[in-house]
Amino acid sequence: MWSIQVLQNPTFTRHSCRRLATWAKEFPRRIRVITTDVTGTLVSFRGSLSDHYLGSAAKCGVQIPQGTSFERSFARAYREMCREYPCFGSNMMTAKEWWKLVVLRSFAHSGTTLTPEQQDTVFQRIYSLFGSLKAYEKFKDTLPFLHWVQRKNIVCGILSNADERYGDSILPMLGLTHDELQFMCFSKDWGFEKPDGRFFLAAMQQAERYLHHPGSSKDPLLPGHVLHIGNDYAKDFEGAKRAGMHAVLLNRYNEGDVAQEWQRRGAIVLNDLMDVVEFLGRCNCQLG
Predict the structure, then answer these.
(1) Mind listing the domains of the chain with CATH numbers?
(2) Closest C-alpha to 136, from 176, 164, 79, 99
(3) What is the top-level taxon of the source organism (predicted)?
(4) Confidence of residue 1 (pLDDT cuts 50, 70, 90)
(5) How far lies 31's CA from each of 12, 228, 229, 273, 286, in Å?
(6) In the structure, what pLDDT confidence band is assigned to residue 106 with cuts at 50, 70 and 90?
(7) Phi and psi angles of residue 138, each rounded to the nearest 5 degrees, phi first
(8) 65, HSE (Cβ side, Cα atoms, 13 Å)
């Protein structure tokens, strides 16, 4: 077992005017492992958060104050919980208990009063909804990409700031199982979150189990053999680069200004997973 070390990239510089971190572009020579984020990368949310939360509350007879920005109330509650109980509660509470606190705080911040009975019924309705196909769908290129990865003998797995329900039920419900994704690392299970380099390198340890089979290369897995795919500059791109890995960001939702800023700061930005296939082809790197 090799030790976990977070690397400082020697090409890391500072922009003289904006004082924003920039990275020199580096292209892979060999990719043996791909790690990927979940939402915004493999899977998309369906509908809006406010529709799901407020619709569930309305069905339970809850009146929502007029002029409420529920997305803002939810964001505040989510930030508070991440600060007070990081990694979805880690070993301090279950993910379901963590999400119940988020839901109840979201309604409280919106000025909505729930009776004790409504607290239970509203939460259970929301929690069940976010474990169903009403809240998620996979992108059309997800399975074709994962099948291409398999044909190239690349080990592929999840690296996500999420709880274990994704791996236990949500991804399998969408047809994404251990047949397509050999390993799944969720921050709830590990007690680390992106961009913590320990989380990225813990995923390498998981991937290494699937590299050594009869007929496979005995070469040690290096951070430079790993490509991480995500959609957040700090968590996905910088986190992976600081761990010594390669990284690309997906601009799934055509956020032009955001994508341009990512590119200005040194990120490789692509539109979808098929663009990742083309990118690796242009790099002419060894696969598997």
Answers:
(1) 14-43+136-287 (3.40.50.1000), 47-129 (1.10.150.720)
(2) 176
(3) Eukaryota
(4) very low
(5) 22, 10, 13, 15, 6
(6) very high
(7) -90, 150
(8) 14
